Here is the input.
Amino acid sequence: KNDGRQPAYMSNYPEAWMFADLASCCEKRYHWNLDECMGSSTDAASAGSGNWYPDWEQSICVQDCVGASPCGGLAHNWDP
Here is the structure.
């Protein structure tokens, strides 16, 4: 969660417990259960990769996912 309600011991030692993004946290703490930690669906193609790619029309970077911003829809195979 990113709600600021983490236990005090995590706040007191953030370099051990706090991560800049979900992927970093999951890879460090739950590498053995990465898909579930990341919230990946069983149909990865419909969920997107969660990576970021440029939206040339809006001149912004968007996330490869379906839903509200920052999602920009599923990336095309020609998107980097």
Q: What stands out?
A: Residues 22-29 form the longest helix (8 residues).
